[in-house]
Amino acid sequence: MLSKRIIPCLDVHDGRVVKGTNFVQLRDAGDPVELAALYDREGADELIFLDITASSDNRETMVDVVRRTAEEVFIPFTIGGGLRTIEDIRRMLRAGADKIALNTSAVKTPRLIQEGAHAFGSQCIVVAIDARKTAQGQWEVYIHGGRTATGKDVLEWAAEVEALGAGEILLTSMDRDGTKIGYELELTRAVSRAVSLPVIASGGVGTLEHLAEGLTLGEADAVLAASIFHYKEYSIQEAKRFLAERGILVRGLV
Amino acid sequence: MIGIVDYGRGNLRSVEKALEKVGFEAVIMASPNELSKVKGLILPGVGAFADAMEALKIGGWIEPLIQFAHSGRPFLGICLGMQILFEVGEEHGEYAGLGLLAGRVVRFPAGRKVPHMGWNSLELEQSPRLLEGIPNESYFYFVHSYYAEPADKGDIIATSDYGVVFPAVVGKANVWGAQFHPEKSSPWGLQLLTNFGKWVNENDTLSGY
């Protein structure tokens, strides 16, 4: 049967990892490729690189990171951040990325989802949605890293991106992001039920119990986490063992 | 040397790098002209069945691929590259495939999320050399909405379960296919590619073409 996925997320700035650089096993802790290869060995199911480089001048640096990652990492990996055109997408896929994630550009230019899915297949087009709660059972889509409100309803936008050909939704609760009090389960469940696409839960994870909740109560297909793995609070193996004990199907337990 | 068919569909670089990682030389082939020089061939692919067949046709690949399969050299289709080994695909209509394996490619029935995306485990029906050293219930990475229904059940080498049990590995003689992505299925996918590479090398020694 299909297993649930655990996906570490790496923030990359000018080609360097900006969090999670305290792994003693790494020769160069700031090298995203080394960290990615370590997560691959530990049994991570996928990886997401989020390019937070502000200037587009340094975009070529990210392409190089992707190229080197493709030589060392043999699990699927996604690139997000600053991709605005079909050409940007093509460049990342050609360099070896398996999927790309669109966020602000998807809201501003929804046909980018459609064109991307048509040119490269739905399976490689992830739409990242940053959601903020506005009322009970209601959430608004935010862009520009959570700074700009769009007036869009999250559930409607999720259905729209599915219709446009997105293959997966990366759903982040802006209210929970960085809080470590757990995923916003109501939001995750609502989006999971609103679409038939796989949903990756993100934002707020602080404990292994939170991962389990996201997959069960939140009905997510995958859980994304950053700090709990980067700062070695838990290893991927510990997380998987915990989930397996909760009766959740995971791969790669050693 | 293992050839990788480049017809504009699929993450060729990943396949090439995975083969390199396990110690085999690979070459991405933009045209069928050099097929006589490779000892084994990988046909990757993502996207739609009809698009892929059309792209192969435009690239002049169809006949050379069929001839390659008949030459007895190891031939491995990956994902969509596996699906088009069959006779007929039912994606957005009904289209002819390469017909190297008998059967059809059909869509997952309603009642589940499609595409089937993620890591699923294999149930081994047979133990060919391609799966040597790979334990039963090993996990591989899948992304697909359609699956093969071989006419000859003997062509089913391993299955996976996504509400329906479907073939994950198929094969007959020298023509093989994996519905998952071995190049993205560390560690067992790399084992499969290792087995394929060894088979290619040994096959060369034996056949001496």
What descriptors fit this protein?
heterodimer; A: 254 residues; alpha/beta; 8-stranded parallel beta barrel; 10 helices; B: 209 residues; 8-stranded mixed beta sheet; 5 helices; globular
Topology of helices and strands:
The complex is a heterodimer of chains A (about 250) and B (about 210).
Chain A lengths: L4 E9 L2 E2 L14 H11 L4 E5 L7 H14 L4 E4 L5 H10 L3 E4 L1 H5 L2 H10 L4 E11 L2 E6 L4 E6 H11 L3 E6 L11 H10 L4 E4 L5 H8 L6 E4 L1 H4 L5 H10 L9
Parallel strand pairs in A: 1-3, 1-11, 3-4, 4-5, 5-6, 6-9, 9-10, 10-11
Antiparallel strand pairs in A: 1-2, 6-7, 7-8
Chain B lengths: L1 E4 L6 H10 L4 E4 L10 E4 L5 H10 L3 H9 L4 E4 L1 H4 L2 E4 L5 E2 L4 E7 L8 E6 L1 E2 L14 E6 L1 E5 L5 E7 L1 E9 L2 E4 L9 H20 L2
Parallel strand pairs in B: 1-2, 1-3, 3-4, 4-14, 5-7
Antiparallel strand pairs in B: 5-6, 7-11, 8-10, 9-12, 12-13, 13-14
What does this protein structure show overall?
The complex is a heterodimer of chains A (254) and B (209). With 254 residues, chain A is α/β, with parallel strands linked by helices. Chain A is 37% helix and 24% strand. Chain A has helices at 32-42, 59-72, 86-95, 104-108, 111-120, 154-164, 185-194, 208-215, 227-230, 236-245, and strands spanning 5-13, 16-17, 47-51, 77-80, 99-102, 125-135, 138-143, 148-153, 168-173, 199-202, 222-225. Chain A has an eight-stranded parallel barrel, surrounded by seven helices. In chain A, a hairpin with a 2-residue loop joins strand 1 (5-13) and strand 2 (16-17). The longest helix of chain A is centred in the N-terminal third of the chain and has 14 residues, at 59-72. Chain A is globular, with a radius of gyration of 17 Å. Chain B has 209 residues and is of the alpha/beta class. Chain B has helices at 12-21, 49-58, 62-70, 80-83, 188-207, and strands at residues 2-5, 26-29, 40-43, 75-78, 86-89, 95-96, 101-107, 116-121, 123-124, 139-144, 146-150, 156-162, 164-172, 175-178. In chain B, helix 1 links the parallel strand 1 (2-5) and strand 2 (26-29). The longest helix of chain B has 20 residues, at 188-207. Chain B is globular. The two termini of chain B are 14 Å apart. Mean pLDDT of chain B is 93; it is low at 205-209. Classes of the chains: A alpha/beta (254), B alpha/beta (209). The A-B interface holds A 1-5, 40, 45, 70-71, 73-76, 93-96, 98, 120-124, 167-168, 196-198, 221-222, 251-252 and B 11, 13-14, 17-18, 20-21, 46-48, 113-121, 139, 141, 143, 161-162, 181, 183-187, 189-190.
